[in-house]
Automatic annotation (TrEMBL):
This is Large ribosomal subunit protein bL9. Keywords: Ribonucleoprotein, Ribosomal protein, RNA-binding, rRNA-binding. NCBIfam families: L9. Binds to the 23S rRNA. It comes from Streptomyces montanisoli. One of its GO terms (biological process) is translation. Coiled coil: none annotated. The keyword Ribonucleoprotein applies. One of its GO terms (molecular function) is structural constituent of ribosome.
Amino acid sequence: MKIILTNEVSGLGAAGDVVDVKDGYARNYLVPRGFAIRWTKGGEKDVAQIRRARKIHEIATIEQANEIKARLEGVNVRLAVRSGDAGRLFGSVTPADLASAIKSAGGPEVDKRRIELGAPIKTLGGHQISVRLHPEVSAKLGVEVVSA
């Protein structure tokens, strides 16, 4: 099935790309979650609009990505959350929480969809996260989760 990606999907493509995937993957996962729309002849106009929007938010060059990476890796991020007595959190830390914590710590504005967590953050302490800035550049960032 041909689809048009509306968001970046790891291993598949970026927003605005027209890709061919198995019918079940598109019907059961990509389309219901809003990651893609079905391809139609009229959808070609949507592709141009999606690509224009992507260029506005995209980091254009590797040099620019490396500059943002240097700024990110120099930031000390502390995130205060509610936790129980044993150090377990009530819920978990989301990429949106991390994006706002990076910005409030004086770092650059980061899109929450570019933050990759290896596993959900559900405990207090230090954690490593990865921020995918460009297909060839990603920044490793240490986050200190403390009790509020």
